Fold each of these.
Amino acid sequence: MIFQLLIVAILVLVVVYLKGVKNEQYWRKRGVVFYQRNKVVGIAWDYITQDRAFFEHFHDIYKKYPNEPAVGIGSVLKPAILLRDLTNIQHITSTEFNAFNHKGFEIIEEDTLANNIFLVNGRKWKLLRQSMSPLFTSSKLKLMYHTIDKSARDIVPYMRSNPKLMKGNALETVSTFCSAAMTAAVFGISANSIFESPFLKIIQNVVKPTFWLGLKFVLSINAPVLVRIFKIKFFSQAEKFFVGAIKNLLKSRVNEPIKRHDFADLCVSIQKNGMLKDEETGLEVDPTDELLAAQAFFFFTAGVHPTATAIYNTLLLLGQHPEALKRLHDEIDEAFDKNEGNMSFDVVAQLEYLDMVLNESMRLYPPVGYVLRECVSDSVLPVGNIKIEKGTTLFIPIFPVHRDEKYYPDPEVFDPERLYRDNKAKLNEKAFLPFGKGNRICIGARYATAQAKAGLVQLLRNFTVKTKVFGNDIKYKKDQIQVQLTNVDVEFIERKVKCYL
Ligand code: HEM
């Protein structure tokens, strides 16, 4: 028995060794340097076994090969490559979009809530993106802004009546605001902002980084065939709740004469128009309650997680930089006094320093650390003339690009001035990608920016912030996609300012 086990162990080691050699040769043949650690499973192994975020492993590789346009990395069932060059990134996100329109994650049709714009691909993605785009135009955003602003104004007395929200766990506090704003945008406004929403708990559980979620995630990128065989679902625990909520919402809205300009309004009109049709291919997609629930689920998740992270990181940085905090307080106070507290969309959009601070915070700590694509038809990356075969996974490193001194002098320094007018013009626009780039750029970028600004304006008008760092170095939460700091917190301290009702 021991002898047989030994033979099996030796065979496994030989197979693993040969697969590692094969992975390395694959990229060497294409003139691409190969990352030597874990030649078979690449960073998936490090992610599962270490207490670090996924993006941190990419950052290590990115820094290790400063002169390479791309780095091949180990992957089980398909080739994988980390892009470093911005022209190559532009190539796959825009120029040759049709060859790289796949998001790189494997999902199954039965995973109802995974059928959202972020995760679906090809023509179905195109139909969904087209049908949801009207919700994200500038004019729609202006119409919806008062709902965001209302939640931002309401969070202030809510915090005062719940003092524990002021004294730490600030990410939870800003998530509570974002959740109320998203509840209003997706499910319609009510007289009072809903801060104790069951939706918040549900989406917090869905993305909680557990061993199983990490494993599913790694399989979804590296071994899609296993996701199909084992019918792996990501969001089953939120399915019943979200589908049920959307069904009730649409039933109550279908005969309502008032236009509210929110997600539910759009869904009702989409369903009235019947099948979504792709003229070129003849593909038809039925806008069922389930499909619309999947979009609501993703919008809600994105409106809470990365948006709250962006607000939180900004507050955190302001707490560490008193001169920037003072300048922003002054800008906000001046606008409040000039407009008698009426901080409309147009007023907030004109706060130049707020814009610089928020963008510099998303440069230093982009809420999403990287994105990926899968090649759907053979192509060649222009820089390095790298042949990419159908099925290859390509990683786009957001955090590492934002920290590259080639694009940002003193990249570790929080310096909003680098985004001031002429200074900004000198930066490489391609190197700022907190919302991704190209045809699949974040559809909610403008919405998220408006929500983050509305929250920051009300919070900073009423409070000042104090940042606490526990330990010497910044630590990141072990997360699949997000960039979240763990050993820091922000305290809110009351300011004495004139109150406009
Ligand atoms: C600060 C907050 C946010 C950040 C940093 C962020 C970032 C991103 C990133 C990096 C992507 C991937 C882009 C790519 O693959 O090239 C993305 C996609 C997406 N985001 Fe956001 N996002 C935010 C907020 C939102 C909000 C509020 C919504 C909706 C209400 C939203 C909806 C989407 C959708 C639907 C996609 C998929 C787009 C597609 O594939 O066509 N995001 N976002």
Amino acid sequence: MIDVLPGGLTARHLVEGDHPRVLAVLDTWWGGLKGPAGALERSLLLPRLYFQHFTTTSFLVEGDEGQADGGQPDEGKVAAFLVGFLSQTDPDAAYVHFVGVDPQLHGQGIGRALYRAFFALARSHGRRYVHCITSPQNTASQAFHARLGFTVSTMKPDYDGPGLDRVAFTIDLDAHPVHLASE
Ligand SMILES: CC(C)(COP(=O)(O)OP(=O)(O)OC[C@H]1O[C@@H](n2cnc3c(N)ncnc32)[C@H](O)[C@@H]1OP(=O)(O)O)[C@@H](O)C(=O)NCCC(=O)NCCS
């Protein structure tokens, strides 16, 4: 499902039972970004419905069976996730709603691998553009998406409501460098 992952990790589509497991890692993985208000924002961004109705376009990476004996990562431990979907409105578009990688596993290509898998899935459904957003404070996310080839917008004030400014990313998969997209 995901071709290149560090040893001891496997990927699969989300299931409903993953909801509490993913919610449980958000605060740590986002490093408390924007304090308690940020924590509430993040948890409200991932209601259970994503784990019911968007499972086939979303991914979870976790520790393999047999890795629990001191091996890293631990068996069954959530290592990364990507929640995305195909646009219901725009037949050319797909959307990555939320993505996260365990901080202990940053910089090993897991985020890129998740996006590659999503790009391939979007392409297989005839989608050309992938969109996503982040908060202006999340400079790491902006750097990551820019590195993957996304165009990064200027800050959009009140994009998600009063005081909820956002930066938007878009990538055109037709113009996308071959090394980033699974063919
Ligand atoms: C952003 C995030 C998903 C990146 O995951 P990752 O697995 O560490 O990223 P990768 O190892 O696949 O990196 C892919 C490329 O992006 C670059 N990159 C990743 N994080 C970066 C950062 N913080 N600053 C600059 N570049 C970065 C990598 O260097 C790599 O480029 P390279 O191929 O030239 O080496 C991860 O840092 C994360 O989960 N952050 C917290 C949650 C978050 O902010 N999510 C996104 C907003 S919803």
